[in-house]
Amino acid sequence: MMKSMSPGLVLMVAALGCGVSSTDLNVDPPSAAARPIVALSPAPVPAIDPQVDEILTAASERFGALQAYRVRVSDTQDVLDDNGQMLQYAALREVVVRRPDRAWAKTTGDLMTRSIWKDGTSVTLYDPEEQVFGRIDDPGTLEQMMDVLLDTYGFSTPLADLLSPDMHAVFTDGVLSADYLGEHLVGEERCHHLAFDHPEIDFQLWYSTGDSPQLRKLVITDTNAPGSPQYTMWVQAVEALDVADVPDSFFAPQIPDDTEEIEIVPLEDAEQDR
Question: DSSP for 180-239?
Fold first, then answer.
């Protein structure tokens, strides 16, 4: 008999863990700051600065043309504790993608260590700290996988946006406005600074200057949550890969023999069991 994995753990693994305040199997859904940037309801025509549109279009075309790539990021997330104190936790994350339907990702952080493999047949989620893993059927493309994880299990993460071949659509869908604030520093590098107003969240993007802008930093503020917690991500590296360098075997799950397999329970079923 397999134990059941709560939807919180499932999607935190699938989404590389962002937005979780504990490793308990019965975690609640994350705040809006930990969700992907998607439209939740019909919105008026957004007021998008032409310079923002130009930068996002150039960046999206460059990133969308990659057939295989590796992304490394570091991030921090704010968590409001039971005493009302805002705490901050950090993580390192890495994802390797071979479009349209292969991915491997790992998070190593203060709150958890998680891995995921998408091999074309199944999506395998592994928690080395709890020594458990679970599988669901592979729904198809990377975008379909993230839709299933969000719609069926109720969680996702800003890192999911890095799987999309169309970042322009991801970052403008549902926004009320998008403003160009000028060139501002990310570390020692001056970058284009973009600010977006969304009904659920505010977020900011920093892109490198030049003909091929690359995302350097992202900040999401959950304006509806107490204390307006933030999620901040720094893109350490984006590496284009040859498809031949990431064969099918690269995306095969690597699970230790003594790891227990557990059932992955959809959000609706898990809530009925509570």
Answer: EEEEEEETTEEEEEEEEE-SS-EEEEEEE-SSS--EEEEEEE-TTSTT--EEEEEEEEEE
In Å, how far from its chain's centre is CA 106? Answer: 11
Q: Return the amino acid letter for 154.
A: G
CATH code assigned at 184: 2.50.20.10
Tens of pLDDT, residue by residue over 214-239, are: 999 999 999 999 999 999 999 999 99
Contact 159, 18 (CB under 8 A): yes
Question: pLDDT per residue over 127-180, tens digit each?
Answer: 999 999 999 999 999 888 888 888 897 656 556 777 788 999 999 999 999 999
Query: Pairing state of beta strands 47-48 and 177-186?
Result: parallel
**Is residue 67 assigned to a domain?**
yes
